[in-house]
Design brief:
Keywords: Glycosyltransferase, Membrane, Transferase, Transmembrane, Transmembrane helix. This is Glycosyl transferase family 21. One of its GO terms (molecular function) is ceramide glucosyltransferase activity. This protein is α/β, with parallel strands linked by helices. The chain contains 11 helices and 10 strands. It has a 7-stranded mixed sheet with strand order 3-2-1-4-6-5-7, with helices on both faces. The protein has a 3-stranded antiparallel sheet with strand order 8-9-10, covered by helices on one side. A hairpin with a 2-residue loop joins strand 8 and strand 9. Helix 9 crosses helix 10, helix 9 packs across helix 11 and helix 10 packs across helix 11. The longest helix is centred in the last third of the chain and has 20 residues.
Length: about 300
């Protein structure tokens, strides 16, 4: 039997994910649905399932709204074992029990995301995110905040929370404080919906990599530049290379989507897309505009 667990789910509205997680709680578990303000739709919900509480985190100061929500949730949570999750993907009825079983076998564990586009730009970028956001999480043993389980004693919680309230990326920072084992179990996460949403998300993703892994970013830009030159000079063999590589990654993580065919055009576009993401001075996330000048220098400018 798994120990009592606190599940943290930041969201401003009640979604299917809230119902899915609430239905899987054990008798001593708790689900903390963490919102920004008392005026958020989820904060005014009059009926909550057993074991579910709504926590109001307040406005972020010097960090992102997501980081503020997670930090508030960690301080409010009652249990030693903690699960982080998000409100934007579906999970099966044994999701929570499977995470517990993974923890008993491996210690801290994370699942991996696959970002599914809902507009032209986010669809085009699927191969890029498959390589960076799916394969990258798995191969580099990074945590994904959508599905990660750990215990407080697995990290220096006080140091982690102090830094969390000074940065943007909750899971980017967690990866620096926690030794986590990724399991090859993929969750499809719909993203985008409009060109602006996709651009802002891309900028945020790029800056997370840049702020937390500056050397890796430089290496990726160098490699991307080489691949771009080769792609222009030798289009047919590089088309085959990019397509087969993307197809192999999709298959390795159990994803069957036609977008693996976009591997070649994304390869040609990755350097300017990366450069744009780094060059942008601000980005929008969750209705707020952030200026992220350094890993621990964050301002909400709108």
């Amino acid at each position: 039997m798994s120990p009592p667990t606190s599940v943290l789910l930041p969201t401003t509205r009640w979604t299917d994910a809230c119902d899915e997680v609430a239905a899987q709680l054990g008798p001593d578990d708790e689900l903390l649905v963490i919102c920004d303000a008392e005026t958020d739709p989820v904060a005014t919900r009059t009926s909550l399932p057993d074991g579910v509480d709504v926590v109001v985190a307040g406005e972020p100061d010097g960090c992102s709204g997501k980081a503020n929500a997670i930090a508030t949730g960690m301080r409010t949570a009652r249990h030693e074992r903690v699960v982080w999750t998000d409100d934007d993907f579906s999970r099966p009825s044994d999701w929570l029990s499977t995470l517990h079983a993974d923890y008993e076998q491996h210690g801290p564990v994370t699942e991996v995301p696959f970002f599914v586009g809902r507009d032209a730009l986010s669809t085009l970028l699927e191969p890029l995110y498959a390589l960076g956001g799916t394969l990258g999480v798995y191969a580099n043993r990074k945590a994904w905040g959508g599905a990660v389980v750990f215990e407080r004693s697995d990290l220096n919680e006080a140091a982690f929370l102090a830094e969390l309230r000074r940065t943007v990326s909750d899971d980017g920072l967690l990866s620096e404080h926690l030794d986590v084992t990724p399991v090859r179990r993929t969750r499809l996460v719909p993203v985008g919906g409009s060109l602006r949403e996709s651009v802002e998300r891309h900028v945020r993703f790029t800056q997370i990599v840049y702020r937390h892994e500056p050397r890796d970013t430089a290496a990726l830009l160098a490699l991307g530049s080489i691949l771009t030159v080769l792609g222009v000079a030798f289009p047919l063999p590089m088309f085959l290379f990019a397509t087969l590589l993307t197809f192999a990654v999709y298959r390795a993580f159990g994803v069957r989507r036609w977008t693996f065919l976009l591997g070649y055009p994304v390869m040609l576009l990755q350097v300017p897309l990366f450069a744009y993401g780094i060059a942008r001075r601000t980005f929008v996330w969750g209705g707020r505009r952030y200026r992220w000048s350094a890993k621990f220098d964050v301002r909400v400018v709108e």
